[in-house]
Amino acid sequence: MTDTPPQPATLGLILAGGLARRMGGGDKPRTAIGGTTILSRVLERMRAQCARLVLNANGDPSRFADTGLPVITDNVPGFAGPLAGVLAGLDWAAANAPEFDYVVSVPGDCPFLPRDLVVRLHRARREQGMPLACARSGEWRHPVVAMWPVGLRADLRAALTQEGLRKIEVWTARHGVALANWPTEPVDPFFNVNTPEDAAAAERLAAQHPDV
Predict the structure, then answer these.
(1) Is residue 1 situated within a structural domain?
(2) Strand, helix or coil at 179?
(3) pTM surpassing 0.85?
(4) 72 forms bridges with which residues in the sheet?
């Protein structure tokens, strides 16, 4: 029997900084699915897997005061996309929680996140010998659902501020990213709600598969 290395203490980063244009504005994570908000579902899944959570959101942070979480804003101007949120999380960890060497990011609009996300991302990173890891379901990669070493934050900042880089997979490919795989049945665990139609579909899935 092979001993499994202990999992590093991991900071969970909920990305809720998007503009939600396809939902008509507002905060997508507040959309109700299965009788509770997507944000509540995300927090329930991630609290069980992470030593601590923070939330990345731009605008007035008080609108998330009910979560009890630190709310951190992008520190790269101009709505630079999810990489800016990841950088904010890495910078926050370095300044406020140096015990964390890794940050796991998830979008705030995924109501069916897997309960084994963190352990499987760490396992993929370790077994494939890569510094980064991201989730894949079926044939689709989910670059925002990923494991990030805090030690790469200076390189990420340079890519964002000096190169104007915005594509996650361009940057992660430079360092090496492991893939952790999940099935898409009975429900894709990384189904995300971008439109009212997506919200309706998620509501149906939650009713059909209440344990997912």
Answers:
(1) no
(2) strand
(3) yes
(4) 56
Helix (H, G, I), strand (E, B) or coil at 201: helix
* Tens digit of each residue's pLDDT (9 = 90 or more) over 52-90: 999 999 989 999 999 999 999 999 887 789 999 999 999
Determine the average pLDDT of the residues in 145-153.
98
Distance between alpha carbon 131 and the CA centroid of its chain, in Å? 17
Taking the C-alpha atoms of residue 96 and residue 71, their distance in angstroms, rounded to an integer, is 13
Closest of 189, 42, 205, 186 to residue 109, by C-alpha: 42
Closest among 70, 71, 15 to 39, alpha carbons compared? 15
Dist. CA 192–CA 145, nearest whole Å: 11
The tally of domains found in the chain comes to 1
The residue written with tokens 């490919």 in the block is 173
Is the four-CA dihedral 10, 149, 45, 25 of positive or negative sign? positive
Instruction: Look at residue 123 and give its three-state secondary structure.
Output: helix
Q: Is residue 184 domain-resident?
A: yes
